Amino acid sequence: MAKLIAKHNLCVVVREYEDAQGQTKKVWRTIGELVTMETEHGQSTFCDLYHMPGARISVFKPRKKEQKPQENQELEKKEEEINVEDIPF
After folding, report:
1. Residue 69 belongs to a domain
2. 57-66 pLDDT per residue, tens
């Protein structure tokens, strides 16, 4: 069973105004939630946006890019060696 770890509101400023003391204030609107849960597969974070019911946006930590296969590296190297001035047309 999933266990709720954290829930955060996603908010945007919709306007600014000055109060009676002349201080600038902001009006915030909550547009969704960022939820982190512990599941049987590990920790899961997702975003639910109120204006898109049923749509769930998954959130992932950035991954390091995998090493390209040797064949692709050789092709890229050959492409870099081509001199445009050597092309006859």
Report:
1. no
2. 888 888 887 7
